[in-house]
Structures are given as structure tokens and as C-alpha cells.
Design brief:
Number of strands: 33
Strand order of the largest sheet: 8-1-2-11-10-9
Largest sheet: 6 strands, mixed
Number of helices: 9
Helix content: 10-25%
CATH superfamily of the largest domain: CheA-289, Domain 4
Radius of gyration: 28 Å
Strand content: 35-45%
CATH architecture of the largest domain: Beta Barrel
Length: 492
């Protein structure tokens, strides 16, 4: 008895049939969990070309394979007929996009023949047989779907199994609020990524970059910041994405890479946010960076918003850093540590933002997070500069509009409008600003007392100092948060 005879030794088999191009295929219904419309899919960098990305399916991170690309067929634009077969591969769910689903039908063993050695478009390794119906007028290629989704082990398509043997795809148990992660999120193309705020040292506009010969293609060069050379990594190039011109929104995120710092160029910095540990799942292991630079996926808004968590520590080795032009950091000597501590005391670390034509700064130690403008509930008889209250993870927080407080003309909120959540004296308040610029560090020697009368008409009592950068060409008004918030007025 042949292997096919042994496999097909059943009176009938139930198949889910579908089309890819003009060819009809079938898979055993026992391997199909469900059939769904094509959801929103998040791309994952450096995955095999047949991987579309990942999506959220009822709280699970589901890897998606393009069935056409997997079987070496030409890709096509998706339409309303496309469907995703959710395949159960030894307890792990994997989605396969097909052109359209035909039907569920029963076939008998006599209808199934051995696959020929050469089959048009499809590797014979993927075939269990060929179903002949209607006197041979209808041919259905019977796929071994587990081989289709698991044939390329070197790409680590499937989720790695944890030491316990359970699949890495799961929703973690709820944790205490103390386990929240604070992240800085940013865009590359249409995809959102985030870095733990503990890794982020500052966020700056793109300065003049000096090219360095004989470096990796993703190394843009180096910049000089406070007499230190900082290597700049173009994250698009690192992930093999298409080149994009630098725009006004392009930013350099300066990160701690363990022993040295580097700048990561991103398309746009979005916000600082806190997320619960229970919304983070491991990333499917089909990307070259999965588990190293790409450490998980955060599911927000019921899974409608997926954020890939990025760990930059392994992007450059210390030897690469030194070759680019930096100095290896083998750990500070005691006198160096004292010098570094003195330098920290001599620096100011601010979150900068704009209101009208002016640029302001708030000390970063007072900033809890930065969010997009959400729905604000109006409060009757509140001071005119209080927009109302917002709910932030169960906490009711008052929202102060700086334009109103500074007696500036009101404007409609835009995509750039942000709420900065500040903590002053243990009380949290949301501060509405036109846009957030960057996280900035500079020497305190560049800060001067505010003049008695500011040109913008803003009360100088609200300003505790003026940072003069670029030889005075850029001025940042550093706010006195206690006077701006004015808690006695809010609670009166």
C-alpha cells in the first residue's frame, strides 16, 4: 500500500476548496480553524517575501502568509473576494490569503490520485494528491497545508515554542499597573514602532550629518553633539525599506545602546505612552530581527492599533561603533563617573513644544506621558482656561489649554495637537499644546532669566528661564510648571 493509500484510507474526506489564479486547491477541513475577511495587516521588516505581516485576531497576533507568493504565483491587488484561511498548525494559528473560497465538499478515496512529479506552478512536495471530479473536467490540487505554512524552517516562520512547550502566541495574564511599560512611539512608513523610554536619551531634529566611508549602508554618518561624535543609523535602511527624503517631521532618536549612544533616524515621532504588560505578545519568529531588535507586539484599541516593540541594543557592536568614529566605552573610571555626574547637573533636559509662534519647554522629570488629543468632558463653571477633564486609565485628569491661559487666539485642534500629562506636586494635569517638538538637552549656562516683558505678551511669571541655542537664533521659554498649573486656582 502506497503512502497515498494510507493517507486516503477513509470513505470520505471533507475539503475546504479555494482558488489561486485559475487553479483550484483543497485542504483538509480539520486543519482549518475558520475563514475570515482580510483584516488590517501590519508589515514586519525583513520577513520572507511571502509573509504579508501580522494582524490581530480576537486578541491573538496572527502571522499572515500570501498564498500566491508562497506557491510562486504572481501577486495581485486584493479585492472583496479575498479571504484568509486560519490554519491550525500543531496548535499555532497561521493565516493564508487566498483569492476566493469556493465551497466545502466531500470527496471519496477513489476521486484522489497520486500527484504527478511535475505540476504547473506548485511544488509536488506541497501536494497530497489531485482530486478529479466531473469526469476529470474539474481538478482540485489537494495541498498538504502544514507543509505550505511550515516548509521553510530556516525562516522560522512559526512561533518558537517556549521552554514549557506552550505556543508563544497567547494573551498574557493581567498584571498590576506597576508593570506598565512607558514607550516612545514612532512611524516608519505606515507602521508604528516603539522604544522603551529608558533607552531614549533625547529626540532631536536631523542635524548636519558627516558621512563616514566604508560603513554599512544603513549608517548615515556621524553628528557632533556637545563635542561627542554620535553615529546615525537610518532605520529604514536597516530594515531594508525604501529610501525616503528627510522631511520636517524626520527625527533622530538618541538611544542608549549599552556602553555607548547612537541616533536612530525615524520618519516621525508620535507620542510617549504607557501600556500594560498584558497587551504585549511575542512577535512571530519570521523576521530576521524577531527576538533581538523586535521584541513584541502591543495590541491597543481592541487590536485595531498594533505597535511593534523595538530594542536597539543589538544594532551596532562596540567594534562597529569604534570603527565609525566613536570611542569604546568599557565603563567609566571613578573620576569619569564624577565628571559625568557633574555634567548631568550642568544640563537641562526638556520636552519642547509650540504654542502659536513660540517654543516652550517643560522639564522632562515633570512629564508623565504625551498623548494625542482625546475627547474632553466639559466642566461647568470651571476657569476659562480649563477645557474639562479626561479619563486616563481610570484616573480623572483636568485639562488646561495653554492658549487660553496665555490669552492667545483659539484654533481648531489638528493632528499635531497633543496633551502633555505633567505631574506637579503629585497632581497630574493634562496640558494642551499645538505640537510637540522634541526632547532636548543643553547646558544650563545657556539659560538666562526671563525679561520683564516678553514679546508675545505672555506673563513672565509663567516663565522661569529662556534657553538660548544656536547663538541665540533659537529661544525656548522654560515654563515654571507650578505657576502655570496654579493648583490653588483649580481647586478654589
Amino acid at each position: 500500500m502506497t503512502a497515498i493509500d494510507q493517507q486516503m484510507n477513509h470513505a470520505e474526506r471533507q475539503l475546504v476548496t479555494f482558488h489561486l489564479e485559475e487553479d483550484e486547491f483543497g485542504v483538509d477541513i480539520r486543519n482549518v480553524r475558520e475563514i475570515v475577511r482580510v483584516p488590517d495587516i501590519k508589515r514586519v521588516p525583513n520577513a520572507p517575501d511571502y509573509i504579508e505581516g501580522v494582524c490581530n485576531l480576537r486578541g491573538q497576533v496572527l502571522p499572515i502568509i500570501d498564498g500566491r507568493a508562497r506557491l510562486n504565483l504572481a501577486r495581485k491587488e486584493q479585492d472583496v473576494n479575498n479571504r484568509v484561511l486560519v490554519i491550525d498548525a500543531d496548535g499555532t494559528a497561521i493565516g493564508v490569503i487566498v483569492d476566493r473560497v469556493s465551497e466545502v465538499l466531500s470527496v471519496g478515496a477513489p476521486d484522489i490520485e497520486e500527484p504527478p512529479q511535475i505540476v504547473r506552478n506548485v511544488s509536488a512536495d506541497y501536494l497530497q494528491g489531485v482530486v478529479k471530479l466531473e469526469g476529470g473536467a474539474r481538478l482540485i490540487m489537494l495541498l498538504d497545508i502544514l507543509k505550505v505554512v511550515d516548509a521553510d524552517r530556516s525562516a522560522q516562520l512559526l512561533y518558537e515554542q517556549e521552554s514549557s512547550g506552550s505556543a508563544a502566541v497567547r494573551t498574557t495574564e493581567p498584571t498590576d499597573a506597576g508593570d506598565d511599560d512607558q514607550l516612545v512611539s514612532f512611524l516608519l512608513g505606515h507602521e508604528e514602532y516603539a522604544i522603551g523610554i529608558g533607552r531614549v536619551k533625547e529626540i532631536i531634529r536631523v542635524p548636519e550629518i558627516m558621512k563616514v566611508p566604508n560603513c554599512e549602508a544603513y549608517v548615515e554618518g556621524v553628528v557632533s553633539i556637545r563635542n561627542d561624535l554620535l553615529p546615525i543609523i537610518n532605520l529604514r535602511a536597516y530594515f531594508g525599506m525604501a529610501y525616503q527624503e528627510i522631511t520636517d517631521q524626520t527625527r533622530i532618536v538618541v538611544v542608549d545602546m549599552g556602553g555607548f549612544s547612537a541616533g536612530i533616524m525615524v520618519d516621525k515621532v508620535l507620542e510617549v505612552l504607557r501600556i500594560r504588560a498584558d497587551v504585549i505578545q511575542p512577535l512571530p519568529k519570521f523576521s530576521l530581527q524577531a527576538g533581538e531588535q523586535l521584541t513584541g507586539v502591543a495590541r491597543l484599541n481592541g487590536g485595531k492599533r498594533l505597535i511593534i516593540l523595538f530594542e536597539p541594543a543589538n544594532m551596532l557592536s562596540a567594534d562597529q561603533y569604534e570603527a565609525i568614529g566613536g570611542a569604546r566605552d568599557d565603563g567609566p573610571r571613578p573620576e569619569e563617573a564624577r565628571s559625568a555626574g557633574k555634567q548631568a547637573l550642568d544640563e537641562e533636559h526638556l520636552v519642547t513644544f509650540r504654542i502659536d509662534a513660540e517654543e516652550f519647554g517643560i522639564k522632562i522629570r515633570d512629564v508623565q506621558e504625551i498623548n494625542r488629543l482625546t475627547e474632553v468632558t466639559k466642566i461647568p463653571r470651571a476657569p476659562h482656561y480649563i477645557n474639562g477633564i479626561v479619563n486616563l486609565r481610570g484616573n480623572v485628569i483636568p485639562v488646561l489649554d495653554l492658549r487660553k491661559l496665555f490669552n492667545l487666539a483659539e484654533i481648531e485642534a489638528t493632528d499635531a495637537t497633543r496633551i502633555i500629562i505633567v505631574d506637579c506636586g503629585g497632581t497630574k494635569t493634562g496640558v494642551v499644546v499645538d505640537s510637540v517638538s522634541e526632547v532636548l538637552r543643553f547646558e544650563r549656562s545657556l539659560i538666562e532669566p526671563p525679561p520683564e516683558l516678553l514679546t508675545s505678551g505672555i506673563d513672565s511669571d509663567y516663565v522661569e528661564g529662556v534657553g538660548k541655542l544656536n547663538e541665540g537664533k533659537r529661544m525656548i521659554l522654560i515654563l515654571n510648571l507650578e505657576k502655570v498649573i496654579g493648583f490653588q486656582q483649580l481647586t478654589a
